[in-house]
What does this fold into?
Amino acid sequence: MRSTSIPIPRPAAFDGWPYLGLLAVGAALWFLCARHPAMLPFWAPWEFSWVEYLSTVLSLFWFARGLRRTAPPARLAPWRRILFVLGVVMIYAVLETHFEYMAEHMFFINRIQHIVMHHLGPFLIALGFPGETIWRGMPEPLKRPLRHPAIGAAMRVIQQPALAAFLFVGLIYLWLYPPIHFRAMINPDLFALMNWSMVVDGILFWCLVLDPRPRPLARTTYGIRLLIAFLVMLPQIALGSYIAFATRDYFPFYDLCGRLYPSFDALRDQTWGGLIIWIPAAMMSVVGFLLILNFMRLNEDATAMEEPLDDQETIILSSRWTGR
It folds into this structure.
C-alpha cells in the first residue's frame, strides 16, 4: 500500500517590509525634529507631520510599484513619470522643510508656498497622469473602501465643472480673507486644514482640466475645460492686483511674528505677495489653456487616423491647427 503525501502550502511571503522601512525613516525624522531640530539641514522637516510624510512617500512608493506591475508597452512615458515625481517633491518641499518656517514669517513667501501647493505642484502631478499607475501599486485592502459608490458619487460632485472652478477660486479668497488668514496662521489645526485644502483642491481641479482624453473617458468636454481654465484666471488677477496696490496692511500677522527681512516693510511684502497671486496664477491658466488646445489637436489627429480620408480632407484637417 503506497502512502500519499499531502503537500503543505507554504505561507505567503511577507510583503510589508517596504512599509516598515518607510515607518522607520518617518520615526527617525520625527525623533530628530522633536529632540534635535538644530542638527537638521534646511531640507529636513521644520515641524514633522505624519500625514504629509506618509502622503508623500506612499504615493511615490505606490507609483513605483505600479510601474513595475505595468507591462512595458503600457507604462507612462518617461516625461510623465518625471513630472509626477517633480510635482510631489515640490509640494513636499514647501510643506515639510524649513521653507515652511519662512512662509510663516513673510507674506510673499507664503504666497509662493500656496502657488506651489495649489497650482504648480498639482499641475505637474496632473500632467503626469498617474492615477492608474498608483492604483495598480496600492494594496488591495485599501482599494476596497475606495471602490464604494459613495466615493465615486462624491468625486463626480466635486469635479462638476462649475463647482470645481468655484472651489478653486473660492478657497484662495477664503484663506486670504484677513480675519480668517490671521486665525489660520496662529492656529496649528486651522493652518494644516488651510494647506491641505489647497493641495487636495489643486490636484482635483488640475486633474479635471488637464485630462488629455476626450469625453466620455474624461469627466467633461475640451470646450468646458478651456472655459474654466480661462474663467478661474480672472478673479485671481483681480485679487492679486487689489492686494498688490493696497495702501494699508491687510495681514498684520507677519509684523506680529517678526519678518525675516527687516528691509521689507508690510506694504512692500504685501505688494510682492499680490504680484505672486496675480502673475504666476494667470500664467498657469494660460499654459493650461494651451495644453488643452494641444490635447484637442492630438485627439482630432488620432480620430482622423482611424477613418479613411482622401488627401484633400487630410490637408484641410491639418490646416486647422498648423495654418499650412
About this structure: The chain has 16 helices and no strands. The radius of gyration is 24 Å. Residues 149 and 312 are 48 Å apart (CA to CA).
